[in-house]
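Notebook entry, structure prediction.
Reason for the run: the old model in the group folder had no record of what sequence produced it. Starting over properly, with the input documented here first.
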Amino acid sequence: MFPVSVCKGCGRTIESKFVYCPWCGQSKVSYENQDSMEILFDKLEEMQKDTHRKRIIKLEQELAILEKDLSILVLSAEMHK
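New structure, fully documented this time:
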């Protein structure tokens, strides 16, 4: 297993020998103190929360469309009785 670092740009793990992140192209930074790690993990947590918020909004929109389609289907079925 290769030693890994965490990219300060995208938060993904990368091999320590990399100079740039292969995912986002950000220059790799070695973290010498705990404060920089805290900042990194705070940023990573915020990115994850943002991703979750976007997924929830998308699911809510898809659910609204499905509910509308279901209502039309039920109404159509009732009319054909």
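Summary: Residues 20 and 26 are 6 Å apart (CA to CA).
The old model has been moved to the deprecated folder.
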